[in-house]
Amino acid sequence: MERYGAGFLEERKLEKRWSGPVPALVSIAVLFAVFYATWWIFQDPRGYMRMYTPYVGYMYCRWWLIMMIWMVYIFNYWPFKRSWLENANPLYKGAVLTLASVAILLVLIKGFFEGFLGNFGLAYFNPEQLEKLPGITSFFAIEYASLAILMFAAIASWLSPAWVVAFEEAPWQKLKQPAKGFSILMITFFLSTLVYFVTMHPHMGILYDPWQYFTSIAPPYWEQFADTVSGNFHVGWIMCCTVVVWLVETIWERYPFNLIKNDWGRRFACFFGIILIALAMHFFFYFAQELTFGEAIRGTRRGFAPDWRWLHVGEMAIFLLVPALFLNFYFGNWPRKFSMPVNVMVRTLITIVAAVLLYIVYYRTSHLFLGTQKGISHPQQFPMIPMIWLVNLMLVQHWFMDNWPGWKLVAKTEEEIAADHASHQAQIEEIKPTPQFGIGLGAGAVMGVAFFFITVWALPLFYASIDLIK
Amino acid sequence: MSDNMKRRDFLKGATTGVGLGMLGAMGIYSYSPLRKQHFPEVARKMTDIGVCKSVNVTNISETSWFENATLMGDIKGAGGLLVNQYDYNWPPFGNGKGLGKGSYDDGMAKIKHLLPDKIDEAWQVCVENCVHPENAGGYAALIDVEEMSGKHRKFLLDSGWGYAWTDECFKREGIDKMLANREIEALFFSHEHFDHFWGLPVTLKYDPTITIYIPEGFYPEGLQYIKDSGHKGKVVTVPKGLNPHIPGMATYVFGIPIICRVYGEQSMYFNVKDKGLVSVTGCCHQGIIRFAETAYNEIKYENDNFYGIYGGLHISPFDDWDPKYDDLVISLKNYGFEQIGCNHCTGVLCAKKFVAAGYNVIEGTAQHRSKDKVYLGNGDKISFG
């Protein structure tokens, strides 16, 4: 039976081409070079295609991420065969898979969203339909349509991997490809559509004058709670969901959900646990902005506006994703020598510190090389675009090119695969609900609450000590 | 179980617990009403900027461009809202190479020798080399402040864009003569945007020595343009924050990034005796509510009352819309502005929503190419006080 890429990521062995940190440094150097070259070609406002209009570039960026998730996580590289994945030259393989992802991307955006949905269902997905409205310029017709399509992408980038990470592909995990892939695609796309209609559609419904009372709930139901009618309230928590899915999958190794023995219990706990963690981040990041930038003021624009604050919640979350993936892709998910909870804690701390540094460095310097402007709350600038662009290229390098050039793919033997599984299982098994574990859990929870309040106390002082925008 | 095992189990539990405790507190506390106890009480500074008797504003031009579709077509073709404004190949910085392929140096090389005296000739060069010169309007306003003594002091806020249009407007409102007679004592630039700043040579044609106030954050091209336009007077770079100017008048510079690669905006506050605060803006990219909140926190003004606004409020300059603008329409009532003299980048759509929401938007006459009576148009005047 042809397995295509099922289990390929877990069962491949990436062998360093050189000793020490050289492979990571070389691969990261190549990554950044490609990032900057492609940024210039596709996104940079000074560059060739200038897709950072902003929403056009943003839309393609977000959906390209999902295309790769679909190809790798949902379809397990189908229809590319396992033998080809293991033996093809990484450059050739990277080019073919990347082109395939871009081809699907174009079909989806031009064919499905703009062509099908935009012409036969919801006009706001198609710029040409929008241009028929009086007063709508071609530019904003394209921007509005791109905004709608990328809002859908935000949801899909959470739910598509969540079904694999949290639900472990159930109940279709034993199906062959492409049946499994299409099944998961259908359910995640269906759920994405439902979430879209209750989160983003009301935003689109009041994007026009008069408000579209007949087609969407206006004003949106979240207005009083979120202090804004903008759908950015949802963008924030949905982006946090996307980030948490990948934290759970990479640096957390699905801990602590993997302690739950019952399959469906574990799956539901993980799926809804991701949402709860994301909501906690969502509210905390908003609070963090209140503590540092000051209280939000409804109706104003930019940095003090609640709608921008909620959007910035998602932007803050994305700064966590980048170091987490770096740690996982280029540093072998270091450390691995401790117990799983301690490993997870150390990685999380590294990720948080790196994210804070990345945030500061981004806002201090990005305008010097991305063709953007200095400042935090430029209404047309979104740090999610360069961050996700970087993440996309990391995925190309890691998923499609086996971390070339620093690493090379070596097939694991059956024994090595079995040993990996046994080792991972043993790490889970060694966590037992002993009295000491329970005491530690309680003491840790108290410490966690204390750390929270220490963070709340320290944040304004920390922010006052740095000059984010020189 | 050995002590080591117990310790290890405790550590596993503790690290897990820290995460759970932290996340739990984050989720339960962060958006609860209890969080507000962490917000410091911000004392109002109540800076005394003095008082004036009245402020009268003449709208020289609010039509920055005449066809929105043309401007947005240019923006779309050049690569969107983040492209450097000097690269669009808009007048006066045209090099004949087409949309999105311009540069300050190329454009200036063609007209520098004609500035500021021969702006008609310079404009002809622009027409030949630039993209859509017929669409270049501009924003400019005459501010007449009546001091408590009855003495009137005049200031120019911005200097338009297209040389031909700006000159026509200056002549229509008598600004040319006021400048030539040195009746206008300073030119304040709200920000570096093309439609507010690039008509500078028209002002300098009539008064090359006028003192210019620019907000902190001008890019090198903008600073060079002031020199290349033939300015012979003093240039004052106004730092971020509150800057009192004359009794009853202050400017405030907001350090904010703006579309088309511009940074920083300077707006004006006037404290009108027995009436309250009047806010005058070019584009108000900082947002009218932040502008008002800043005044509340920084300035002492009569009756603690927001009396009036004049200028572009930068809500839907391109007739675009976004739900966050509805937040503004809904919230503006909390500030109680008695008179709203808006125009320009406020957007006709927004002005209509203001009217529908019951705000006192002062109607205009829709003359001299202004398109709608819903707000103050070209040549219209408004008095505060």
From TrEMBL, chain A:
Keywords: Membrane, Transmembrane, Transmembrane helix. It comes from the Bacteria. The chain crosses the membrane at residues 21-42, 62-79, 91-113, 133-160, 181-199, 229-248, 268-288, 308-332, 344-362, 382-400, 437-463. This is Amino acid transporter, AAT family. The lineage of its organism: Bacteria, Pseudomonadati, Thermodesulfobacteriota, Desulfuromonadia, Desulfuromonadales.
UniProtKB/TrEMBL annotation, chain B:
This is 7,8-dihydropterin-6-yl-methyl-4-(Beta-D-ribofuranosyl)aminobenzene 5'-phosphate synthase. Pfam families: Lactamase_B. It is found in: Cell envelope. One of its GO terms (cellular component) is cell envelope. The lineage of its organism: Bacteria, Pseudomonadati, Thermodesulfobacteriota, Desulfuromonadia, Desulfuromonadales. Heterodimer of a large and a small subunit. NCBIfam families: TAT_signal_seq. Its main location: other. The keyword Ion transport does not apply. InterPro entries: Metallo-B-lactamas, Metallo-beta-lactamase_dom, RibonucZ/Hydroxyglut_hydro, TAT_signal, TAT_signal_bac_arc. PANTHER family: METALLO-BETA-LACTAMASE SUPERFAMILY PROTEIN, METALLO-BETA-LACTAMASE SUPERFAMILY PROTEIN (AFU_ORTHOLOGUE AFUA_3G07630). GO terms for molecular function: iron-sulfur cluster binding; transferase activity. SUPFAM superfamilies: Metallo-hydrolase/oxidoreductase (SSF56281). It comes from the Bacteria. Keywords: Iron, Iron-sulfur, Membrane, Metal-binding, Transmembrane, Transmembrane helix. The keyword Iron applies. Residues 152-220 form the Metallo-beta-lactamase domain. The chain crosses the membrane at residues 12-31.
